[in-house]
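Can you please make up a whole protein chain along with its C-alpha cells because I've never seen that pairing?
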Amino acid sequence: MPPPSAYQTDCDPVQLEYEAATMTALDDRQFATTVAKGFSILRCFTPVNPVLGNSELAQRTGLGRPTVSRFTYTLTKLGYLRTDNRTGKYRLTPAVVALGYPVLATMSLRQLARPLMNSLAERTHASVSMGVRDRLSIVYVETSRSTANAAAQMSDVGLRYPIASTAIGHAYVAGCDAAERAAVLNEMKVLTPKAWAQYAHRLREAQQEFARKGFCSSYGEQHSDYCAVGVSFGRTVDGESIVFNCVAPLAAVSRRQLESSVGRQLVSMVDQLRSMARTL
C-alpha cells in the first residue's frame, strides 16, 4: 500500500523550480541536453501519477509532443518504460529500480542502522527513515515503519522531500560544515528563488535549533497532518552525508512529546549508530 497522499510528493514546487532552472543550462557546451531531457521524462512519474501519456509528459517537461514521443519510444525500447495495458500510456519498469540498486547495495550503513530504526519506529509508533541528498532534496534510502495498527505508513525507499521545508532537510543543512552549508544555501538562492524567499528564515532558525537541541523539528509545516524531527549522522567513510528523521501523525504526538521524547530518542539512536560505525 502506498503512503497516504498527504505525505507524497507530486510536482513539488521546489522540484519544479529546480528543474526549470537547470534546464536553462542549454548553452553549456558540456551539457548533454538529450540525456537531461530523457531523465526529465523519467522523473515525471510519481506514486501519485504512475501512469502518464505523451501529452501529460509534454506539459510537465515543457518539451514538444513530437520530442516526447521520440523519447518515450526510445525509453520503451531500452526497457525503462512500458505501455500500460488499460490506458495505453506509460509506466516505469523495474529496470529503473535496478539502476539504483548498486547505490543501495554498497551503503553498508543501511544494514547497520536497520535494527535500530525498527526499534525506534516501534517505540514511537512512527516512521524512521535514512536519507541522502539528491540535488535540493533528501531521498530516502532506508525506512522502518511501526507495525501498530494505528500507525500511519508515510515513508518508503525512494521518496524524496525538499531540503528547504522539511526537518530532515534542515538537519542536513545544519550538519554540513560551513563551506558546504554556504554552497547548498547559495544553490537554493540561485536555482530556487521562490522557495528561498519562503524558507530562508526557517533554515536559519533550524541551524540554531540544531545547535541547541541536536535535532531539527517540523510540526505541521511541510504537511499539515504530520510532525517530524531530523538528525544529521555526518559523513560515512566514503564521503556520503547521511541524515535521519522520525515522522508521526500530529494526532498521535504533541509538540511537547516531539521535543522531549521523539527528538531525543532519534538523537540517541544516531549517536549509537555513529559509535557502531566507528568499529567497522
